[in-house]
Structures are given as structure tokens and as C-alpha cells.
Protein 1
Amino acid sequence: MELFADVPQGWRRILEACETEPWGKRLFAQVEAAYEKNDPPVYPPQDQLFTALKLTPPEKVRCVIVGQDPYHQPGQAHGLAFSVLPGTKLPPSLRNIGKELLSDVGAALPEHGTLTPWAEEGVLLLNNVLSVYDSAPNSHKKWGWAELTTRLMQSLAEQPQPIAFVLWGREAQSKGALVGPEHSPYPRLVIQSNHPSPLSASRGFFGSRPFSQVNEFLTANGAEPIHWNAKQG
């Protein structure tokens, strides 16, 4: 399917398998129709729908950070959870991630808010739902995306490298029971806390120290830590 023509083979085989099932056929047909009509507009742009998968193939994944669904205002979403394109005002959740990052490991987000450097470091920035209508958060929640992203995350069980799963908020935590160490013979870590949204960050996100926990887990299992202060351009 054209939607995932450029997706790495390791992910592509999961998408193609989902496409053979009734729910997957409905999902991809609905997504393609929404992009074709584009009224209301759909985010991220169609060619950026699978940016997270394109930048972080399964064999490179060292950490998975799960978001809810894409930002729903023009010019924000580009296929990486919590990330925005250069020139876009940082959303409140991303600013709070930056505060915790600085407090936890003394690192700073890129000023432009684009988290591509993390993706290239092996951080899969995956939303639970991968598309959204303009100004309508969670508008594609019931389309079947959650089943697809569950399949993607479960497929990581066969990857031999250590992988940490960082689950912020209820939507992300719904994946927790499916990806823990009991589901893989390889080293796995699950970190859960409240979402970095201003509505909940002060109730368990701030002070949760996810970034240092990920790196402690990786180094304890013989892997390189994530360079959370990676810069781009």
C-alpha cells in the first residue's frame, strides 16, 4: 500500500499483516479516504504518517515513548510523538518534558522542539493513534490505530537488544501489560507515570526521572545510553 511504501521492512511486514485482517482493511481505507478528502484537514501530512517507523527501524529501537495522538493544529504534527516542526511554538506537554529532562539528566530539548535526534538515537516516538482531524483531539481514536500500534509494540519482543518502554498517561499505559519483561526473553523495562500535560504533570510526571531510568537500564544490560541532549541543525 502507498501509505507505507517507504517504511522499513521490519515494520512493513507488520503493517501488511494488519492490512489482511478486516479491522486493518477498514482502518487503512478510512485513513486514505480522510487524506483524499482532507475536509477537515488530517494531521500529520500523509507523507509523514509513519515518520516514527521510518526513522527508527525495529532493530535500532532502544526506547519506546508512547503518546496519545498527533497534535491537532496546523504545522505541528510530523509523525513523531510529542515532537513539532521547527518554527512551531512548543506545546505545553513538550515544554514539561523539557523541564523533566533538565531536572533528571541536565539535558535540554532542541530549541525548535523537533525530536528527530532522539528518533535517530533509537527512541521510537510512537503515538497510540497515528492520525487526527484538525482541532479535534482523539477524533480517530476508534478507527483501529490502537490495535495496529499494539501489534507494532508487541513485535519488538523478538528484538534481542534491551528496550525500555516509557508510558505516559492512561492511553499509553494501556500497552503496559503487553510489552513487559514477561513477554520477551530479552531485557525489557516498563516505566509508567502521569502524562506531561499541564493537567497531570504535577501529579506524578515531574520527578519521575524516566530519562535516567532508561539509561541506567540500558547500561546495566551492556547497551549504549541514549544521548538525550542530542542536537540537530
Protein 2
Amino acid sequence: MMKNMIKKRISILLAGCMALLLGGCMYPGEQLQQSQIPYEDNVKDVEEAVDAFRQDNGNLLPIVTKEEDTDYYIKYIIDFKKIVPRYLAEIPGNAYEEGGVYQYTIVNEEDDPTVKLIDLRMAETIRSVKLQIDAQGYPALAEEIGPGVYKLDYKKMGFDEEPVVRSPYSGKDLHLVMSGKGEIYVDYTPDLYDLLAETEQDPPDNTDIRSYLVEDAMFVPAYSLPYAWDKKEKKPVYMSNQE
């Protein structure tokens, strides 16, 4: 009888250990999944924390200092060290600072600071293209598609297939382009066309129409060039010379 009791206790102990092991194995995958989901509640909580910080700090924003010529949509990155834990209990699990794939940024910084997301997986794809260009020593340009904006010849650059990024708006594959300054950008033309042409909107002349993408979405069109709306052709075009 004593042997049976010992065996039973060992079985229970082994079962408990197995559960802990399985739980430990499952958690990283679950954590990885959580780090890749853009939760609206996270964005709302961070925005409330930003508002509270501003009220206590003379309308200053809790942001990382960037160069003056940084593109608008990646310029006002939130510095979580300034709002956690006083204004926000913890950094969202999907934030870059916690190993997530999103960076939290601010738009409408003067009138109505609003928190949005940057999908950093785009930056990884851009980085891979830059590394290939550096290894080759020069970019292989295919054609000019706008003033100072070029498609790349990826076959000549050694790619088996063209690298693309996934649109945070439509889920479509978006192409990459190069400016005359040698910088790589995401081409949001399909998203802009779908939004403006299909809804028959008519943006004012000489207006950067990227703002239309931001209005009702959690994301900003990160790593992009300014676009204008060609009223005659009814399509988005690159706004100015990017040489």
C-alpha cells in the first residue's frame, strides 16, 4: 500500500512538472503573438497617459528627440520612460521597447496630440535592401516613376524575388522605391488610390495626401515620401523632386 501511495505521489509530481514545462514552452509563442497584434485599447491607454503628462508638464510631449528633417510620421516617437509607471502602469507588450513590432508615435502634435502606430517590420525589409545595396556597392535603378523617385531592379541586385512590405491599411503588398538621395521608402500609392479615387474625394492642390490615410486608422504611413493628388489623372503622385 505504501508503494502505491509513493507511486501516486510521484505521478502527481511528474504531472505537475510536465504542466509547468508545457506552460513554459507555450508562453514564448503566446507572447510572440501578443507582440504582433495592434490593440486599440493599448493605443487609447497610451494616449491618455500622453494627455496626463502634457497637463503636468506645460503641454510638453513625452517624445524622443529627433533631427529636425526627420519625416513627420516617424518624428514624434513616444519615450515610454517619461510616462511609465507614473502615467501608464506598463509599456504595452506589442511595443518595440518590449520586443513587439510596433513603435508608438504622435500626430497632430500641436492641436490634438493623437497616438498612432508604426509597423517596424517594414523597417526590417528596408534594412535588408540597404544591406544588399551596400554589399553590391551601388543600386540598380529600373525606371523613374516620379520626380527623383525610382523603381529598383532587384534581379540585378541579387534578389530572387522583389522584397515587399505588407500594408497596415489594406493588407496588400507594397513595393519599395528609392529617392534621388539614395534612401529607400515604401510606396503607398495603392492605398492612397483606393482611399481617394474609390471614395471620390478631391484633396486640395499642393497638399500632402498621406494625412488621409491616418484619419481613421491606427497606423501612420511610415517610411514614405510626400504625395499629392493629380486632379486630372485622378491618382496619387509624388509631391516634389526628391533629388
Protein 3
Amino acid sequence: MKKLQLLLVFGAMLVVLLAPAQAQDPVTITYWTDPALAQPVSLPQFTQLAEFETWQAEQFMEMHPHVTVEVRGLDWPDLATVVPTALAAGDPPDILKDYLGRTSGYGVEGVTVDLFQHLPQEDLDDLLPGLVQLYTIDGALHAMPTYFWNHAMIVNKALFDQAGLGDMIPVDDRDWTLDEFYAAATAIKEAGIGVDFPYTLQVASEQGDYDFHAFIWGAGGEIWNPDCTTGFDNPKTLAGLEFVNKLYQEGLINSDATTAAYADQTNNLFTGKSAIMGGGMGVLNNTIGNAITNGEVTVEMDPVIVTYPHAEGEVSGLGVGPSGFAVFDKGRSDYEMEWVIEFLLFLNSSESQVTYTQNNSQFPARASAGVPLAEDENYALTLSLIQARGTENLGLACPGFYEVRISQPPHWQAMFLGQETPEQALEALNSEAEFILDM
């Protein structure tokens, strides 16, 4: 009898061991992405928005057949409207890759998952501490940083050389004063080589704001103070604003800045109508590099990185801003959330960050990713400038950041068009900011 029982038990165990593994329950993950990798430099097979990210998702689905990933790409303007609309409708994506200036607002609203509660400690420890601090809102890690950009000036030195003005560009220390910048811009406009407006800018939307804010920082002013109050009442902010207005009124900034889009800015640079624009490694390697490849550049191009100009006695730091992956709180089960986090870690692994930063010329958020473009002298130069000059306070994680950000362009437009003085523009913005921050 005992032998029979043992045989029955053994047989049952054998059936279990030989039976095929039970299929895992299916999971669908929605992933929305920004256009930062729409044209990756070293992956020319991807030329359209979200093609690269779809390829990533396909790799993940091959490894995990029970998971379906639905990818959607959003252009920069859409990120500011489509995502809030989806949130209002109760149907946001599971994962969104976007700029901290927008995701911080979702963190403040409390609609994102606290990733401190979901990410393995080893992954948290691998993130740069300064970025973790930026992404922590009310004690919660509202998103996982992936890379960060820098903002400086890109000068087409070839045009200055053509006009015999190459020595006016500070290629040695990359540093110049407001007066030196003004002199160089005036000289290249008067040189008669087709540079109609030396500095190209747009104030039609908030997307051009760092090109604008950098002059204010250079004058010693602030948009955001360290305590997340605004600096619109700072006399040095007014001085910087008056300088920008002077450039526009004297024709040193493109006359259509109030209506121009980013594509108009780059076209001005590519065709030699302008010789200077705001940007960083992404503009230098990706935007200009792709334009040269595509035959869009019609003038000789020798782009160099220079810091924004500053007033005597002031230090001009660089704007630095990260992007990351936010996970929205959709009431997922523990099992579903496990796979959302698994996909997040796949998207934001050290290897993935190396690929991202090699293809969009940004800087990785993981220490283990190292320096992906160490052989690029401009990449190394940018890191040295950040270390030497410091960074500016963009206010990215401040409550009300986005609302204050979008309140500014109408006043810059009104100032350029003579409908407001610089003082009136700042007075109006100060009142609007106080109202926003008191809400």
C-alpha cells in the first residue's frame, strides 16, 4: 500500500515537472515619447518620430511575449497639450518620456507613481544624486531621469572669418561680455555678407525661452530664485531684458521673432541669415549635423560653442535640463506594475542611456553609463564649461513652473512690438506669477 502511495505521489510530481510552464497573464503597456530621438545620428534607419522607440518595444516584446507595448510619439508642442488632456480624461499613458519642466507639474499634482517605492536600490544608487534631488517632489521620485542637455550659444565662426571678424569670437575661453557680444553682432550685420540679423530667436512660444533667459542670467538677473519665488522684480532681470530689447529694436534679432518657429531659427542659421543661435551639443551634432547631411545648409559652417554673454562682474552659467520617464498612477495591479517597471528599467538601463546620449548628444543620468562621447572634443569642452561656470537655476521642479513659463512669451512679444516697455512686461509678469504661485 505504501509503495502504491509513493508511486502515485512520484507520478504526480513527474506530471508537474514535465508539464509546460503556465503562460503569464497578458499585460498591455502604453508608452508615449518625446521626439528627442526621432533622427538618431548613428542609427540612420530611423527617420520618423517614435520609430526608434517602437524598435525598442519590439525587442522587449520578443523577450516577454505576454507583454504588448503600444508606442506613441509626440512632437514638442503636443507634449504640452495632449498629455494634460489625456490626464483629464483619465487615460494617460503608463510611461511618458519628457522634459522635467513638464513632468514636475505632474509630480506636483500627485498623478505619478513614487518610483522610490518601485525601483531596485541598485538602480537608484546608480543615478546622479543631483538629478535624483531635482526629480524628488514632496518626498517622492516622480520620474526616473535618463539624460540632460546643456544650453549655450552656437556661433557659425565661418561667417565671422569670411567677414574678417573671426577674432571677435572668444574661441580660447568661450567667454564674452554683453558689450563684446553686442560689438560682434553689430559688426557682422554691417559686414555686408548676408547676415541680416546676427542672433536668431523666437518668442512665439515658451520653447524658445532659454535663448531669451540666458541674457537675463548674464546680467545677473533671475527668472526663478532658489526658494521657488520668481525674480521678475529683480533690477538685474530688468537690465538683461532691456539688453535683449535693444538687440531686437536695432535689428540684431530676427524681425519675425514674435511669430517664428524653431524651424525658422534653424533655417536662418543654415542659410546664413543669422550667425548665432541658442543651443548645445544636440544642436551642434544632431540639428546641424543632420541638416548638413540633408543638404539644408547653404553657407560654409564652422559651429563653435560659446557661453552666453554676461555683464562685467557677473558669471554666466549654463542652462542644464534633464528628461526622464514618468510612470502615471493608473491603479495598476501589483502584477501589472511589476511589468511596467520592468519595461521602464529596460528603457532606462545603462546601455540604453549610452545609446540615447550617443544619438542626441546629451549627458547620461546613470553613473555607470560613463562618458559616451568622450572622443568628441565639444562634449568634453561642454562638461568643462559646466564645471567651471556652473549652472543656472531653471526652476524646473518649482510648483507653478509650467504656468509661469507659458505666461512669459506674450509679454516678450508685446515688448518687441512696442506695446509694453520692459518695466511694464516685468510688472505684469510679477503680478501673474504671484497669482499662479498663490493658487
Protein 4
Amino acid sequence: MTDIPRDKTFDCSLALLTNGYRFISERCERNGADLFLTRMMLRPAVCVRGEDAARMFYHPDRFSRKLAMPPQTLMSLQDIGSVQQLKGDAHRHRKQMFMSLMKPESIRRLGDLFEEKWRARVKFWQASGTQVTLHHEVEDLLCRAVCEWTGIRLSEAEAPRRAREFSAMIDGAGAIGPRNWMGLALRHRTERWAQKLINDVRHSPLSRAERSPLETIALYRDENGEALSTETAAVELVNILRPTVAVGRFITFAALALHTYPEYRDRLREGGDEWREMFTQEVRRYYPFFPLVAGNAMEDIEWQGHHIPRGTWVMLDMHGTNHDPRSWKDPHTFRPERFKNWKGNAFSLIPQGAGGFDDGHRCPGEWITIELIKRALHMLVSGMEYQVPPQDLTVRLSRLPAIPESRFIISQIREPH
């Protein structure tokens, strides 16, 4: 890889933690290329950015996710044996299990559950008269909605605990130290709970003619006709629940955008689904979610005149690609109008991955994410009234994952007149 620009820093692990979401793009600019060679945790790594890099990285069966993430991140977000760790036919077969859950009517049902629970919570907020932290409240609502949608019954006492567990996994994924340790400890507890749910389903008759998502996972058979181990099935169940709770970060950023750019409130209220879609996509593009994705090359790759040998650890800059001026005019300006008549591009807008859903590693829950953000926008502009008291709304791009410092506090909440 002698033809690839080499970063001067011996090992960039600390620089990644310090610069966060800006790390790859800043060093690409410094090195005058869309890729550079460095070390992460003393391991050689090639970092890439941009739409063309996403096309290269998400080419089917070109990269393996196995052992491509730091252990503490893998254990917080996916765990060993998950669909993201598979490749080839095994990956495609299990991916279809997740895709079968993404029918439009099923996604609408999850959106309905989320909106119903939010409306009920508005009444409670109004009656209590206290200010609330929107981020934590939305995570709780999402947890309750996705569990009910999946076929899991949560008691009133259990729901907040599960929401906190999922939240800790997400918040600890990009950290080293206590924040990560807490997420890992709670993940183990959550997986024991999920394993019991899987075993209960396997020893009980089906709840209805159409399988619930919980039943779909528990009774899934792989490409060889074998059932998943209880542990692996529990991992995949958590890999539906936790990412749905993670949508709370996008919703918190959507609320921040409405507060920062209040001129869009009337357009969202009057413009219907078209404006909610445009605003949602701009929230997903503009605000930080995943900083990067990593993979190990399964073949020799020639890209932009450079040779990337088989076995190379490659990191794709997701946040930087979403802000690449070659793909997005004024990329650091929040402008939902850019998505009017947008034809779609699976490699320039990549907050949750790129490429195809069926044959690649793109997150199958992306449609759920969009639906839930749109429902939240409807509630924020038409389903409630509230005030935003003084608070620290700073978003530090050095924090992984990023979130407003105050988690967005609201007060004087009431139903709309």
C-alpha cells in the first residue's frame, strides 16, 4: 500500500477519540486525497470518504464485518453471531428474515403505536406540570412501542428499565471507560432477558396466524435448515429493539432543528407528509449519528488508482460523506429543501449505511427510522405545545455518539388548542 498517502501520526486511536466525527475528513483534506493509511490500536487501517468510496465499500461481498469493529463497540452494538458479522449466502439468508419484517403495513403499525403512546404521554406531562428531558422520554416511548410491535409484553415497572438498558448500550458504543463498561454490563442483562423470551416462544404455540417479529426470530431457520442458538436469536432480537430506541437520537436532533430553525414549523404543519419527509432526510444527513463503518477486504481492490490488498482494514467516513460538498451543495447548512424532488442516492446519503438492502449490509431498519422521525415531527409541530427553557444545546462532534449536552429539555407542555 505504498501508493496510498500515509498519515504522519504513528497511531490515530487517540486522534479519533479527540476529533470524533471530523477525524477522517480532516485528515483526508490534510493529505489531499480521499483515502489515507494510518494505524488504529496499532493495526494498519485505510480510511476513505465520499460517494465513490461508499460505492467501493458497499459492493456486495467485498468486505467482511467480522473482527472489523473494536470489541467494546461490537459487544455494545451488535455482538458476536449477529447478521452484520455474516457474509455471503449466510448473510443474505438471515438478512431476508429482517427484511420480511419491513412491510409497509408493519412499519405503519409501529408508527401508530409510537404516536399513540406519545399522545398519552403529553397528557401526563401536562398534568404533572414539570419540565422533561425529551431525549430520555422519547427513548422510553420508543422502547414501549417497539416491544409491543415485536410481541413483547412489558409491565409498567419493567419498561423504563429496559429503555435505560438499550440507551446505555447506544451511549457506550463509542466510548472507552465507564460509559462503555456500563453499556456492556447492561447488555448482558438484556440478553439474558431476551434469551428467556426466545425460549418461551419456542415452547409455546404461535400467538396468531401471522408471526410476530419475536416469533419470526425465535423460529427462524438458516440456509441449512438449522434453528439459531438461543444466544444468537436473542442477539438478533436485541438488534431490532436497540436500534429502534436509538432513533431517539435522531428525534432529539429533529427537535433541536425545529428550535434552531423555527421558520420550518409552519411549513411542516401545513406541508403534510412531503415536508416531513424532506425535513427528516435533512436531519439524517446533517446531524451526527454513526461516524464511520469498518470492514476487512475479502479481495484485492483497485480504487482511484490505489491498490488495497485483501485483508486490509478499511474505515468509511459516513458523517463526512453526508457532508461532502461534491454531493451536497452547502453541506454544512441545514436546508430540507434540498430533498424536494430528490431522486435518491444510495451512496451519498449514508447515515445508516449505503448500497442495497437485500444483498448488502445497509441497515434494514432505515424505513422504520424515517417513519418514526416523521411521526415525531408531527407530534412536535401539531400534537403538542411546549417551551424550550435556557439550557446547553451544544453538540460536541468529539463525543461518540453525539447528542445535545442537555438532551433537549422542554417545559410548559400542553395539548394543542
